[in-house]
């Protein structure tokens, strides 16, 4: 846990997860916090940090090769290389980052439900996050994360399965009792 007022959590290489106190203050209950922690564990289990490093390395190597081969000297050539880099960011890096976020959302939803937490609170969390941001943020295609509305829609699609997982967890006696 990091003493920081921002509403953030993250996963790092080496199976490390961090949660800012601002996010802990934002959540209403254990289930919403389980949404966040499950999401970050989802990144770790899916090895997203490794994929991201490999992807960025490949894009950087490709850009270096194009620049070395083309060796643009003119302003127009330099601009073309810059546009190619922006295209790689918008067309490769950001979409895969959003894909990783969506995948971590689903993995986290399933994990929290299997532990006995209420998966419906994941939707409430993303509504709170949207309200907390005041609806501000970049257009989804310019962001590393899906829009809050997109996340909510995807979680709603997965909810029947998550609710079944929770029912099974409760039948096995899993009833989390966490407190701030």
How many E strands?
2
* Number of helices, where a helix is a run of at least 4 consecutive DSSP H or I residues: 6
Computed Rg: 20 Å
Instruction: Kindly report the average pLDDT value.
Output: 80
**How do the helices and strands follow one another from N- to C-terminus?**
EEHHHHHH
Question: What structural class should be given to the helix and strand makeup?
Answer: mainly alpha
Catalogue the unreliable spans.
none
Main sheet properties = 2 strands, antiparallel
SSE layout and pairings?
Layout: E1 9-12, E2 16-19, H1 21-26, H2 30-45, H3 48-70, H4 75-114, H5 120-132, H6 148-171
Antiparallel strand pairs: 1-2
Q: Key features?
A:
single chain; 180 residues; mainly alpha; two-stranded antiparallel ribbon; 6 helices
Report on this model:
- The two termini are 13 Å apart.
- The mean pLDDT is 80.
- Helix 2 (30-45) crosses helix 4 (75-114), helix 4 (75-114) runs parallel beside helix 6 (148-171) and helix 5 (120-132) runs antiparallel to helix 6 (148-171).
- The chain has helices at residues 21-26, 30-45, 48-70, 75-114, 120-132, 148-171; strands at residues 9-12, 16-19.
- It has six helices and two strands, in the order E-E-H-H-H-H-H-H.
- The longest helix is centred in the middle third of the chain and has 40 residues, at 75-114.
- It has a domain at 9-48 and 97-171.
- It is mainly α.
- It has a two-stranded antiparallel ribbon with strand order 1-2.
- The radius of gyration is 20 Å and the shape is elongated.
- Helix content is 68%, strand content 4%.
